[in-house]
Amino acid sequence: MFELALYEPEIAPNTGNIIRLCANTGCRLHLIEPLGFDLEEKKLRRAGLDYHDLALVTRYPDFDAFMQTMEGKRIFPCTTKAKGYASDRAFQAGDVLLFGPETRGLPAEVLAQFDSAQWLRIPMMPTSRSLNLSNAVSIITYEAWRQIGFEGAV
After folding, report:
1. CA–CA separation, 113 vs 109, rounded Å?
2. N vs C: which end of the chain shows fewer Cβ within 10 Å?
3. Are 57 and 22 a contacting pair, CB within 8 Å?
4. Closest listed residue to residue 5, CA positions, set 106, 114, 88, 147
């Protein structure tokens, strides 16, 4: 399945929703610190409901530790700065979808580590800034999963 990575997520309910998404899609979640909340926070648990035990979640102390673990994998940074849409990519199981924090997105120094041809965006109206993080993760995850025939789904 896919690897979903949140770089310095800030809002507990968004991460809780993404944990639930991971449990329902078979994706693994990677949380890159610092986090803007405690993993035991009530809002996180409420948003994830009882799915925490059904999702594989790994924490990393920093971006370098995450990158070492992901070595050799295809990583797609998701950013409003991308030119190519997620729907235009050909995804493969094992691909990594990397998302930035809610208030600022992926920083330039992170994006600079990847070829801009790998960057992904979601189509939006020209007057829009961005989507909610958990919505954006869901949209791109389901597009990637659709491309591989919803492997493992019932």
Report:
1. 7
2. C
3. yes
4. 106
